[in-house]
Amino acid sequence: MIRRYWNINLEEMLEAGVHFGHGTRKWNPRMAPYISAKRKGIHIINLTKTARFLSEACDLVFDAASRRKQFLIVGTKNKAADSVARAAIRARCHYVNKKWLGGILTNWSTTETRLQKFRDLRMEEKAGKLNRLPKGDAARLKRQLSYLQTYLGGIKYMTGLPDIVIIVDQQEEYTALRECITLGIPTICLIDTNCDPDLADISIPANDDAIASIRLILNKLVFAICEGRFSYIRNS
Length: 236
Known about the structure:
Strand content: 5-15%
Helix content: 40-55%
CATH topology of the largest domain: Rossmann fold
Pfam families: Ribosomal_S2
Strand order of the largest sheet: 5-4-6-7-8
Shape: globular
Distance between the termini: 19 Å
Oligomer: single chain
CATH superfamily of the largest domain: Glucose-6-phosphate isomerase like protein, domain 1
Number of strands: 8
Structural class: alpha/beta
Mean pLDDT: 94
Order of helices and strands: HEEEHEHEHHEHEEH
CATH class of the largest domain: Alpha Beta
Protein name: Small ribosomal subunit protein uS2c
Family: Belongs to the universal ribosomal protein uS2 family.
Largest sheet: 5 strands, parallel
Subcellular location: Plastid, Chloroplast
GO molecular function: structural constituent of ribosome
């Protein structure tokens, strides 16, 4: 895989607060190699390491996108949800930005059934069929449609397991990460100082609580994905 220049600079990361970790009492000792200092009771993340692993992740997703691989971006906490949806839509990726429903990946046959039900209900609603049903039935189906839209709306076009999963917060999305590990799906994970860097295939040390930090990391990754997709088009 050819390494490329992704315009990752330390000043930009400093401005976004990527370097701020958790309090020194709330940390995982395995993160020690990624921490450069302590300041006012907070661990400071080594941004040189962040830049290195972010660049590696960009190389990986570029290469995968240039071979038409499919991506899933996961980030369900409030500070990440909007950034996840925007980034995924921009790069034409699947995403989950609300509660992760256990078994989305490991029980894929069940997920496929739910997605088909979701698509059927959307078509019925667009055709006005729900409004022609008895009020009780219509209300029940509309509630079901709303539920499916909330939790599965970001993967409604997913027809199989993703090739790579990008996870914004390791601890928050631990169930999703474990499903990927079980299935052998490669993962790229944004990890703060309270995480385990050995669980994901590529771990990017960064502040997972600041919106600006999350947005910066995701923007770099989706830019690389978009470039990879353009590369496929140019070479096809």
